[in-house]
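User: Show me an example of a complex going from sequences to structure tokens.

Assistant: Sure. Here are the input components:
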Amino acid sequence: MSEEQLVRKIKDGTVLDHVEQGRALQVLEALSIDGKDGNIVTVAMNVPSKKIGKKDIIKIGNRFLKSEETNRIALISSRATVNLIRNYQVIEKRKIETPNTFVDVFKCPNPTCISNSNEPIRPIIDVLRKSPPLLRCRYCSRLLSPNEVI
Amino acid sequence: MTNPFFNRDIISIKDFSRPELKYLFSIADKVDSLDYERKKELGRGKILGLLFFEPSTRTRLSFEAAMLSIGGNVLGFAHPSMSSVEKGENLADTIRTIESYVDAIVLRHPMEGASRFATEVIAKPVINAGSGTEEHPTQAMIDLYTIMKVKGRIDGLNIAIFGDLKYGRTVYSLIYGLSKYRPRIFLVSPPQLKVKREALFGIDDKIKVSEHKDITEIIEELDVIYVTRIQKERFPDPHEYEKVKGSYIIDSELLKSGKDECIVMHPLPKVGEIAPEVDNMPNAKYFLQVYLGKVLRSGILISVLNPDPYSLIDS
């Protein structure tokens, strides 16, 4: 079955293509997309891909995600591509870039970090090195690999 | 140099440059040289909040003594059971409340990163007195100050950090502090208590660091041995602890095999990792560290609370 049959084209919105296989739900969570705004969100997982074997695809109707938003998924799916669609036409194509800081995207895995307490605090993870990624919790200073936070 | 400490948070030793530390040490020297009455003028009218969410007699009393010695006042609590935390109040609300009463806050908290979070919540300066197993910046400043006072320099010294390098909160700050100078660092610990990888991130290319199991291999080279306590509770197997404990003791015999002028330091409390006979040897500097701790913390408080501490001291 082709991709076209699986996921309908959208008129306006954002398409995240080439999302790492099986990571679509994590991507939605990182983007804080929960469907509560009433817009159509289509998720396809394990879609055959010539380039990467299998991939996930996410189509978000009527929302045009900015770079600062889509870059939040850099550690979850760095190969994903972002297509902004207007009237069925691609008006912008972007790659994901790793930001210098992730605010409120990942929890620090250190259970004794203050960011895991009942304090009014948003977890902040700084990116010390982009390739290969090396992270550090802004609060407890623990060095982290992407696997520890995803 | 304009006072780099005025109104500044002291969260990590990493945030301070070598010239800034030099400035602080010079303020501390000046404070120490003043007579009792002159000292009492420096902090008059200032109030320091001591918020200890985790018991720490030594650090708390040192800050308290430092503030009282410059004529300031202190308020706060020594244990969360003595505050509204017991009623379920969070840290943010507690420090916001105390901020109204004081000029600066000294904070110790069991959770890592608590002091950094506190700086986001309040505008008044926060001094980290230890958060979880994270850094203890003022202790590191004291350690550097002590080495400077005794040895006259840090550059070029061979410094061993010995004992529990994994959980000792003073160790991380000390390593970062030393990395601002050019010493050679020997990390000596049982394999299960080696430093965490973050301790060396970004500094192992600046200074020469090596890891060792046995101090006797390097004792002849050492100028400073910084001893930390190996805690029994860190070992799941008590038998393992007993085995390790015996080989991590500094005694007079070991010191005699090293340089005469090799000094022994310890953040205290010590419980057996330094043999009692060492206390009376000229090498032992840990009680000097305690004294200099009060002096340096006075210097920190004066510098944090006043825009121009030099004029204040010289007036």
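The lines above are the inputs; the final block is the predicted structure for all two components together. The CA atoms of residues 219 and 257 of chain B lie 7 Å apart.
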